[in-house]
Amino acid sequence: MKRTFRPTLKALCGAALACTALGASAAQTITIAMLNNPDMIELKKLSPAFEQANPDIKLNWVVLEENVLRQRATTDITTNSGQFDVMMIGTYEAPQWGKRGWLAPMANLPADYDLNDVVKTARDGLSYNGTLYALPFYVESSMTYYRKDLFAAKGLKMPDQPTYTQIAEFADKLNDKANGVYGICLRGKAGWGENMAYSTTVVNTFGGRWFDEGWHAQLTSPEWKKAITFYVDLLKKDGPPGASSNGFNENLTLMSSGKCAMWIDATVAAGMLYNKQQSQVADKIGFAPAPIEVTPNGSHWLWSWALAIPKSSKQPDSAKKFITWATSKGYIEMVAKDEGWASVPPGTRESTYARPEYQQAAPFASFVLKAIQTADPNHPTAKPVPYTGVQFVGVPEFQSFGTVVGQSIAGAIAGQMTVDQALAAGQATANRAVQQAGYQK
């Protein structure tokens, strides 16, 4: 009688080790384009918990500096190359890319995700025509940080609502370069989301605007000249050396290591500055609203770093599973256990702000939520404008011309050109961009 050979599973695989490899190869890999800010580094650190819970999904991280991330994500989405399954984008990109059909809608989320718990301002900023195209990882406005001990030593008191005139006076009195403490730290690094995000809020509150209602650039207006001259002179006089190379991360390092008397930047930094593991001045930090000058309009920004799925993703279901995990209530609890409640991703969920643990650990909590809720992208300037966005102009061309203008203004900080030269160059760049796009009337 002929025997039928029935190979064992071990024989089929060749060896138990090969079986393991075969099983592993069946897992889907999703590639994530991620920003190199501290909150995102924490996400990568905690992500093995997601992989353990989802053994059929492997995460491939591409962690990039802000300007590089924007370039890579934009190139990938516009060429439909499908290099990334998950992209970290913001309130500038999400509505525009959603409108063009480049992003998968964030629909059919799990019931326990509790989308209604997500702050409405955040949802609205990431939507187009009522459809949500990204889930917020954190949401921020901008605010003023200052060293309470240095203010006390000089007999100074931060007002409940500082003006830029007062900020400049404080910076002069607090500047102590001989001891490595600078009166103020501000973004100077070129980029539409770096120095232009901050300096646009200065222009706004000084009464300026990027364009008039007919899309004519306003960069050579008296308001722009006054605002940018103020900003450049303040950094030259009372800022750290090499300020034209400093963005959010560089200034965060300076402030948390005790080198800055004041810093005006994103509210998300509060959790890092109050974290004793990350900040040498955690017990010395005070906070106030972003300064104003002639108008409160546009003095503090609204931004969300969010996670989105490009339509070109080859693994959209796995990508959505990861995004919902990374922006869930459960993930916030994980960060609280690992880093403390002060350091959880802010601005996204009403339930975070309702937690007594968060209110106790984060004295800035209610202040930050109010700043987020009062920032108004639809009325960012004193005079009417044809665009939305506080610290950016919500049109596709801004990514390009905003960065070019930022390069000119960084050049003025570095002393390579005058403010008038920088603004004249910026005026020509901005006008050319909107003329070519057919906006000007």
Automatic annotation (TrEMBL):
**InterPro entries per the record?**
Bact_solute-bd_prot1, SBP
Kindly indicate whether the keyword Signal belongs to this entry.
yes
- Give the source species: Trinickia terrae
Q: What is the name of this protein?
A: Sugar ABC transporter substrate-binding protein
Where does it live in the cell? Periplasm
* CDD domains per UniProt: PBP2_TMBP_like
Keyword Cell inner membrane tagged: no
Supply the alphabetized keyword list: Signal
Family according to the record: Belongs to the bacterial solute-binding protein 1 family.
This protein's GO CC annotations = periplasmic space
- Cleavable signal peptide: 1-26
